[in-house]
Amino acid sequence: MKYRNFILRAVNLVLILGVLWQYQNTALLRADAVAQRQKEIREVEAWNASVLQAQQEAEEEKQAGPKDGTYEGSAYGFGDLITVAVTWKDGKMTDISVLKADGEDKPYYRQAVSVLNEMLETQSTEVDTVSGATLTANGLIDAVADALRKAAQ
Amino acid sequence: MEKTQIRPQTAAQKRQQEQKHRALLRAAIQAIFFVSMPGAFAAGFYGVRQIFLRIGTGSVLQLDSFTLSLLGLCGFTLLTGRFFCGYVCAFGSLGDLVYWISGLVQKKLLHRKKQFRLLHRAVLWGQKVKYLVLLFIVVMCAANQYGRLQGTDPWEVFSRLTALRTPPEGSGIGIALFVLILIGMAIQPRFFCQFLCPMGAVFALLPVPPFAQLHRNGENCIQGCNACADRCPVELKLDDESLRGGECIGCEACVGSCPRSNISRWDAASGGRFWVPAVAKAVLFFIMGVCLGFCRFF
Q: What whole-number distance in Å separates Cα of residue A73 and Cα of residue A100?
């Protein structure tokens, strides 16, 4: 048959896509269930925390963190120095912006920027790196850590 | 008074000249992509890796930039055959460059008449190894063991070198593999592409539609002629029945070498202008590459 090769490969591709599609549906269902459960856990934790906080506030006074302002920090990523600016307000990181990341390959960089949101959410630089874009992600994390170090001085 | 006459070229001379022009054009396109998009092939394969890493952790698949790169490369290959492998991929170009230099050394310094090549039978076996490489990486990802392979990736070493930086620390195995691959590239054309490249394995499995492939009109062939297969970097004698058809990287070295011009594709029939399809595809890929963020400059 003339197109045997093509048909064989096409069937093969359709099978693989079908399996991935099936997987995706199952994973979506599971993710929904997990999100629901996490929401419940978070509600309980929030309530616990509010009780604890009320107790703590009564006991201790607020500690003074760095002054409000914007701090710059930099570290080596994949290709070159990455420079970020961290905005500190009312004892929290409120914004991280990347000032310079010329040395990074774009597909990797886009993958890695997710660590910025993660650091803002957790208010810490102890976040997981991004697999596949490790060097760029580590560069971003180190640059933020560098900025916080400067802020603390 | 002497009259200088320009003798008309014979058909063989014409063919030889066109073959030379083809090789030059291909080298030029490869050089442009090597400088501007050296990371494209790795980004595409990391899409495969990403999918199976997600499956390994049971999380939802996402259209991130690696997956988009994979879809872009596969889509382009479905439309144009493995033009990407033959003309764009920086690692493939590196292989061509190393083999060319090795040929120069062998001919000029060692005075060998013929450049060294592996036995045909060894090549046929070797070409199956890349499927095992692909399978191994996919299984490692899906089994959540990929972290163990950290520092063994020769592509990471290569990508750091194209960024003019030293390879990251702890990638000793990666550097060793890269050096071994370079040695391999010197003894066999497209050593990595045909024997080891997991992305090449993916491309070879894709259902490239017949119109996008090169075809050989076997009935018109000279008995016992092997010109196309001798020129072919992956030692393919084009045959629609052969399962190895997926190995063709679309370099079109065979097209110019055939004494009867038996090898063609629908887009190669544009008269004497052999460069039109290649340039058109290169421009098309360049636009797509810029959109996907492969380009170092835009």
A: 11
Domains of chain A, by residue range, sit at 1-61, 69-152
b (16+ CB within 10 A) / e for B142-158: beeebeeeebebbbbbb
Domain range spanning residue B41? 14-290
B297 belongs to a structural domain = no
Instruction: Name the residue facing A106 among B54, B209, B293 (closest C-beta).
Output: B293
pTM of this structure: 0.79
pLDDT in tens, B185-217: 999 999 999 999 999 999 999 999 888 888 888
Chain A residues touching B61 at Cβ < 8 A: 20, 23-24, 27
Q: Please give the full DSSP string across B233-272, using - where no structure is assigned.
A: TT-----TT-GGGGG-----HHHHH-TT--EE-GGGGSTT
Which of B53, B69, B205 lies at the smallest CB-CB distance from A9? Answer: B205
A42-68 pLDDT tens trace: 999 999 999 898 888 777 644 556 778
The answer to whether the Cβ–Cβ distance between B43 and A78 falls below 8 Å is: no
In-domain check, residue B3: no
A18 touches chain B (CB under 8 A): no
Cβ-defined contact of B59 to A3 (cutoff 8 Å): no
CATH topology of domain A69-152: Sufe protein. Chain: A (3.90.1010)
- How many CB contacts within 8 angstroms connect chain A with chain B? 86
